[in-house]
Amino acid sequence: MSDDRAFSQRCRDHAADVWGASYDHPFVRALVDGSLDPERFKFYQMQDARYLEAIADAFVQIGTRCPDPNDKLWFVRAAERALQTERSLHLHYGEQLGYGPEDLRALELTPNNRAYQNHMLERVQRGTRLAALAAVAPCPWLYRDLGTRIWDELGGSVDDEHPYADWIRRYADPDPDESMDIDELTGRLDRWAQAVDEAARSRALDAFATSARYEWMFWEQAWTQQEWPV
After folding, report:
1. CA distances in angstroms from 203 to 1, 190, 206, 210, 220, listed in the order given
2. Distance in angstroms (rounded) separating the CA atoms of residues 124 and 79
3. d(CA 76, CA 72)
């Protein structure tokens, strides 16, 4: 029986439970109400800055697999956005929380962060182009959804005194110059899915769901301040 849903919708449906779990994670809830321990936020920000380097690598590598110059340019810009626009937020908070570029370079990746990066880059290098895109898609898509939901929950504004106001505004901002255009992202998922068979689409769905799980695990590792057990 054929599935008439757009492939991007199939991805969201396939990861629906974990998508909602990220919004309900205690790290996110404490961030929204402003009660999040600054040390937990610092832990998250530093690990996330290093993750952004990996997703930028992934975007560039996907771009090399695109025959259409417009697609190549889109992925180059996505990589630039990860390295410049988003990383500037991390360095902004670094001034407040006491870390800088040298601290980020010396940072040991957590088990969850390393595993997430390895999963994403493995799909980029060894999977189909659709699986590669599916593996990187949950990060920007989930953050946009989180930002929108948080913004609505707060009534469309956040007080300047809120300790994480800049973070909330960053991910609630719909400006395409500052954030990834999710319609462009989902449109590519849908188009590329039409060019492969159902087996390849199934593998891409699994790649998407795995990355969505790692997104939840990213909140969890910051909440627990995860360390290597040995």
Report:
1. 18, 15, 5, 11, 26
2. 14
3. 6
Q: Where are the alpha helices (DSSP H) in 127-176?
A: 129-136, 138-153, 165-172
83 contacts 52 by C-beta, under 8 angstroms? yes
Per-residue pLDDT for 1 more than 80? no
| Domains of the chain with bracketed CATH | 7-224 (1.20.910.10)
Query: Is 70 exceeded by the pLDDT of residue 177?
Result: no
Report pTM: 0.94
In this structure, the number of other CB atoms found within 10 A of the CB of residue 17 comes to 11
Place of tokens 């769901």: 209
Q: Quick count: other Cβ atoms within 10 Å of Cβ 144?
A: 19
Q: What is the C-alpha to C-alpha distance for residues 176 and 155, in angstroms, rounded to an integer?
A: 22
| Spatial separation of the C-alpha atoms in residues 200 and 150, rounded to whole Å | 34
Name the token pair of 142: 């989930």
